[in-house]
Amino acid sequence: MSTIRVELGERSYPINIDSGLLTSKDSFKDQIQSGKAIVVTNEIVEPLYLNSLLSALDGVDVKVVCLPDGEQHKNLTQFEAVTTQLLEQHAARDTTLIALGGGVIGDLTGFVAACFQRGIPFIQVPTTLLSQVDSSVGGKTAVNHPLGKNMIGAFYQPKSVVIDIDTLKTLPAREFAAGMAEVIKYGIIYDAEFFSWLEENAQALKDLSSEHLKYVVHRCCEIKAEIVSKDEKEHGIRALLNLGHTFGHAIEAEQGYGNWLHGEAVGCGMVLAAEVAYNKNWISKSDLERMIKLIALFDLPINAPEHMNYDIFMQHMQHDKKVLSGAIRFIIPTAIGKAVVTKDIEPDILQNILNS
Ligand code: NAD
Ligand code: GLY
Prior knowledge:
The chain is of the alpha/beta class. Helix content is 44%, strand content 19%. It has two domains: 2-169, Rossmann fold; 173-354, Dehydroquinate synthase-like, alpha domain, CATH 1.20.1090. The protein is built from 13 helices and eleven strands. Strand 1 and strand 2 (13-18) form a beta hairpin. Helix 9 packs across helix 10 (262-279) and helix 9 crosses helix 12 (310-317). It is globular and about 60 Å long. It binds nicotinamide-adenine-dinucleotide and glycine.
């Protein structure tokens, strides 16, 4: 097992990564102080993994809340539904919530944990690649609003993150690819060596080699923990983790949540960000081609929906959380392994790229 710590003073916590953690009692030992927990999961994950988790929670008083599946349910309606069930099940301030599922369940459960009785403990048990390498770590919790993604939320850190990479074996191929977008993101913004490693080991990853998956999840969590420890509330370096997200959120909102997967939209958004970088002479043609090739290699879309032009993108991007004083801030690579936050993108560059 590998363990990474997110260092945040008294709110520090471990991320444990291995095969088989979901059924191991040790994974949750000393984590549920009051002996009372409520697992929040969904209709897809429950039949796959709830029993394994319950066996690891033997001796704990556990109740279960099961939600409908999908990004379209990451909303205030489901927030209220979970809260109602917590009240009906007599959850108290010392009840621990356990998020068993992908990023949708993790973000929603984390937000409920942040708000219920002004904050109760929660544990992330991510079961998708995207949630294992990104959303379960760092304490961003939220639900969507029809006018914008993740618009209602809080920074609220979990007590621990338990990652069982065996759960990736049941993940649909399209969801695996979506997770790879966030994996590639770390290579582009932070770690050129890791990017090269991904190029060299793409096939083993697509074949779901446990050894390779463990390394990928470990390295991504290590990078994310380092960034979050330096900048928990995204005043600086953490914004780099949003590479591809400004364009990506516009695609997700335009297409309707759930039609393009979050990771697919991020993958396409990273291609657009790389094209901006190339047009500004910040990266070479060969770096641009390597980025697009790796994104395409994992079967991610590299072209935005045909009807989406500059005007449509801008309309959605005005609602982005990175808009400050009316200016949209973009994350743009300056090399493989480096990126910057900038609002200085000439409109004609954006028009050329988004209209073509
Ligand atoms: P998801 O939670 O919708 O999961 C994808 C699909 O896989 C769902 O149908 C789910 O039920 C199913 N599933 C989950 N685990 C499975 C398994 N082991 N086997 C088979 N099926 C399984 O999507 P996601 O990609 O995990 O997360 C996307 C969400 O994460 C978005 O809402 C996005 O905004 C959010 N996100 C948050 C952060 C953050 O920092 N909080 C970062 C990135 C993304
Ligand atoms: N996924 C972006 C962040 O956690 O900051």
